[in-house]
Amino acid sequence: MAALAISGGAMLGTADRAAAESPVGVNASTEATLLGSIDSEMALDQVTSVSQLSDVQPTDWAFQALQSLVERYGCIAGYPDGTFKGNRPLSRYEFAAGLNACLDRINDLIKAATDPLATKEDLRKLQKLQEEFAAELAALRGRVDSLEARTSELEANQFSTTTKLSGQVIFGMQGGTLTGDDSDDSGAENVTFSQRTRLLLVTSFTGKDKLFTRLESNSVRSPLNDVTGLTNLSYGNGSDTNFRLTFLAYEFPLSDRATAIVGQDLLLEDAHPVHTPLYGGGNGAISAFADLNPIYRQPTYGGAGIRWRASDNFTVAALYSAGNSASPDEGRGLFDGSYSASVSLNYTSSDDRFSAGLLYAHSYYSRVDRPFNVLGGSGTKNTFNLFKGDSFDSDNIGFQTQYRFSEHFGMHGFFGYTWADSLNNDDANADILTWGVGFTFPDLGKEGSMGALTVGQPPTVVNADGVDEDDNTPILVEAMYKFALNDNIYLTPGVVAVFDANDNGDTAVMGVLRTEFKF
To answer: Is 240 a member of any domain?
Structure first.
């Protein structure tokens, strides 16, 4: 069936043509008769079901009469490609929409007394068409009135014209155990149930910029948090059930190819691409280690970053962020305290199947901020409070990549290395190594679901002078399956095992059942 696009009185489609009959002026009584007829027909209550109505064929008198009005008064705009397609049959409601447009158009011409003036013959055609399609015209007007009422209600009750609200609620049930000949932590077998709730407000003032405001309540902790830091969870490491502001940033374009971001609680991943399908802030990997390369976990808080698309395939990003930018105390602030300055070069293939990035970060840890957990506390015990309260700096490199072999299988990996040097003891330094390999299975079992397996080495002190070095190599294995109940609810069971968790042969095992709600 042909669908007509209505111009609403504007002459957007078919051009006006010379009238076949001489136009005549319309006096007040004729105008009143026409307008009264329209009003009376619009007031009818009876509506016939579309299924009981026949189509209007191009050979019908009504079709030809309306077509002549369209050609004379330009009251139907036609299709987006500029064609009218007047040789196709119409449903009676489609025909009524076209007729209603012509009624509005001719009424406007009568009121304005401008060319082309309506002829008596055209007015008679309109009168007859109104009588034949009275029910459809009434139904059309009723639908328009209903739509206008709903639109008005939405406008009156909308949250904001510039701000969008989204939310995420995570319920997590976690249980863990630490086993081994040297383990004295038999009490670390509690099962916990916790939550993380996030409310995100995204405001745009120009249509191209974004102001992010995130509120969060988080009671999630790893059940093995007291015995090893290698099982930290990706969706939280907090104990505060009160809502607080956890992210505030403003992103805006500098040019067609460059975007800047400035704000509080900026992380490296807010400026640098991460090149992993498991990064998700709670809807990706289970463990913090499998979430993204630990090299990204530098001392950050407030600062600014930029991302520049150098070409269709290459992106350069940079970020400066201070660990205590809001504090005026000595040894803190934007430039006097802990900070991280980073830059990355990133590549993405034209078909989006392959991407890779090389990241460099220089970080300074002020002794005022002790204890210092290098790489966000995601490594072994020896990476915690590495230089026993001394200030130190570090140079960090990270390489991360991913490749999607097919729609249902992908592989990713990362490598990170840190050189850390004490600023209070020239003889104290440490090298820290981390790496990981992951496999993902999108749409496994159901569209929107995903299976994943990750194997890797959490941050480990592999070479040191003046500080403790790890004698053994911990290996973390994570297996998870995110099942999509629907587009807004996901259920994720998973297991995380860390072999040689505390450099003494212990094995940490944690089971998780995570439920995510998005709205």
So the answer is: no
Enter the pTM of the model. Answer: 0.71
- Say which amino acid occupies 245: L
**Which amino acid does the sequence have at 174?**
Q
CA distance 386 to 429: 9
* Residue 365 placed within a domain: yes
Domain boundary among 141, 157, 173: 157
Residue 130, phi-psi category: left (phi > 0), alpha (psi -120 to 50), beta (remainder): alpha
Going from the first residue of the chain to its last (519 residues), give the mean pLDDT of each consecutive group of 10, the final group possibly shorter. 35 32 35 34 34 56 70 63 55 72 77 69 77 76 77 75 91 89 57 93 95 93 81 82 91 97 93 95 90 92 95 97 81 84 98 97 84 76 84 95 97 97 91 98 96 97 93 96 96 96 87 96
Segments forming the whole domain that contains residue 140: 28-157
Question: Do 498 and 359 fall within a single domain?
Answer: yes
50 occurs within a structural domain: yes
Domain-ending residue, one of 137, 157, 177:
157
Residue 215: strand pairing partners: 199, 245
Rounded-to-integer distance, Cα 234 and Cα 291, Å: 6
Which CATH number is 310's domain given?
Answer: 2.40.160.10
Structure tokens at 197: 């709730």
Tally of CB atoms within 10 A around 483: 16
What residue type is 51 in one-letter code? S
492 with 484: CB under 8 angstroms? no
Distance in angstroms (rounded) separating the CA atoms of residues 119 and 194: 77
Strand, coil or helix: what is 75?
A: coil
- Split into its structural domains, the chain has a count of 2
Same domain as 451, residue 309: yes
Burial class (CB in 10 A: 0-12, 13-18, 19+), 423: middle
Helix (H) or strand (E) holding 111: helix 92-112
Q: Name the pairing type of β-strands 354-365 and 240-253.
A: unpaired
Q: Please spell the DSSP secondary structure of 337-380, one letter per residue.
A: S-EEEEEEEEEE-TTSSEEEEEEEEEEEE-GGG-S-BGGGG-S-
- Torsion sign, CA atoms 66, 23, 130, 4: positive
One DSSP character per residue, 35-70 reads: HHHHHHHHT------GGGS--B-TTSHHHHHHHHHH
Q: In sequence order, which residues have a C-beta less than 8 Å from that of residue 455 and are 6 or more positions away? A: 436, 437, 438, 475, 476, 477, 478
C-alpha span between 100 and 79 (Å, rounded): 17
Position 437: which residue type?
Answer: V
What is the torsion angle, in degrees rounded to the nearest 10, for the CA atoms of residue 127, residue 128, residue 133 and residue 137?
A: -10
Query: If you ran DSSP here, which 8-state letter would residue 78 be given?
Result: -
The answer to whether residue 218 is domain-embedded is no
User: Is there a contact between 174 and 512 (Cβ–Cβ < 8 Å)?
Assistant: yes
Q: Residues of 310-334 as b/e, b for ≥16 C-beta within 10 angstroms?
A: eeeeebebebbbbbbbebeeeebbb
